[in-house]
Amino acid sequence: MKFVDEAIVTIRSGSGGAGCVSFRRERFIEKGGPDGGDGGDGGDVILRVDPSKRTLYEYRRQKRLSAKNGASGLGRQKHGKNGSHCILTLPPGTIVFDAQTSQVIADLTDPDKEIVVAQGGMGGRGNKRFASSTNRVPRFAQPGIPGVEMKLRLELKLMADVGLVGLPNAGKSTLISAMSAARPKIADYPFTTLNPTIGMVEAPFGEPFAVADIPGLIEGAHEGVGLGIKFLKHIERTGILVHLIDSGDIDPENPLAQFQLINNELSMHSDTLANKTQVVVLNKLDLTGTKNRVEAFKDALPDQTIFTISAATGEGVKPLIKHLAQLLQALAPEDK
Q1: 171 is known to lie in a ligand binding site
Q2: Where a domain ends, among 108, 131, 157?
Q3: Is 264 known as a binding-site position?
Q4: Is 208 part of any known ligand binding site?
Q5: Were both Cys, which of 17, 151, 216, 263 would link to 80 (CB 3.0–4.6 Å)?
């Protein structure tokens, strides 16, 4: 159920600057000694973990990234300026592969960790460095060492930011289709979703976030009944749970029956799930006869913010996405 976000980028470290061939030019001194300075070192390509990032979104657009070359040395023994580094800021959980060999270069998990993945070339030495008792006027200098170019495959493995939970046929697959570009199988019978689906949702602000549609939960799921049990342990790592309820199935005499059943399964599985931030969403408002059922549910849960939507028509989906984006931004890093 891990969401895998990938990007391939070509990176290149900076080349070292060339050493300088230069001689002193002083008044009344016809042939001064060598004074060529060294070239500057090329910039490194550095991988840096940034806990505030959740996706590799920006690197799908940037296909080539380069550090700056070192500047050439100058006369009067002036050292060339070093090239600036190229820093790739990546979310925790990013695995970096050599795209040619598939060898793992780095597994970035620690916050604020930095790794030099391609070192810049060393600057060449100026002719001042080559002066000796046998060669007082060297007319040569070293060129800079070229930078390193390689292709990296970035793979992010993480749990979704938001998990959709509810009874089978509550409309989770339809909702994830309405929120994202994911296209899970949708049909009007239980257990259409046999495998989790991850969709990336474009938020109105901030980075996109990942939403997981897991198979519907039924009574006894925590004991292995139904299809949802093997996924319960995975949604422990989501930041938020969207509790989706089919408003057409709400019993006006016992409006919280579905809501309490699912919450019982979550709490029986683990305290972690029981204490997750939860957004309650009543779906299928497009069906006739749901108004009274929705009101009965709201009356039975007066202190809970409840979203009412129709995933099929898109009604109410945008405000829900905005609310989820706000909640994700407010979550502490350890809760995400």
Answers
A1: yes
A2: 157
A3: no
A4: no
A5: 17
32 is in an annotated binding site: no
- Cα angle 256, 259, 262; round to 5: 145
22 is an annotated ligand-binding site residue: no
Is 215 annotated as belonging to a binding site? yes
Q: Does the annotation flag 213 for ligand binding?
A: yes
The CATH number of the domain holding residue 72 is: 2.70.210.12
pLDDT tens readout for residues 253-290: 999 999 999 898 888 878 888 888 999 999 999 998 89
Residue 170 marked as a ligand binder: yes
Whether residue 195 is annotated as binding a ligand: the answer is yes
- Choosing from 157, 172, 193, the residue where a domain stops is 157
Pair 208, 331 in one domain = yes
Q: Give the pLDDT score at 186.
A: 38
Question: Would you state the pLDDT for residue 336?
Answer: 52
Helix spans in 49-179 (H): 172-179
Can you tell me whether residue 182 is helix, strand or coil?
Answer: coil
Which pLDDT belongs to residue 220? 45
Crossing angle of helices 317-330 and 172-179, rounded to 10°:
80
Instruction: Quickly state the pLDDT bin for 195 (edges 50, 70, 90).
Output: low
Q: Is 169 annotated as a binding residue?
A: yes
221 labeled binding residue: no
Rounded CA gap, 163 and 235, in Å? 6
- Rounded to the nearest 10°, the torsion over CA 226, 228, 233, 239 is -150
Q: Is 172 annotated as belonging to a binding site?
A: yes
Is 290 annotated as contributing to ligand binding? no
- Sign, Cα dihedral of 98, 103, 105, 106: positive
Residue 44 labelled as part of a binding site: no
Q: Is 300 a known ligand-binding residue? A: no
Same domain, 117 and 222: no
pLDDT of amino acid 231: 59
The answer to whether 192 is annotated as binding is yes
328 is in an annotated binding site: no
Q: What is the pLDDT of residues 53-109, one digit of tens each?
A: 877 888 988 889 999 999 999 999 999 999 999 999 998 888 899 999 999 999 887
Tokens read off for 232: 């319960």
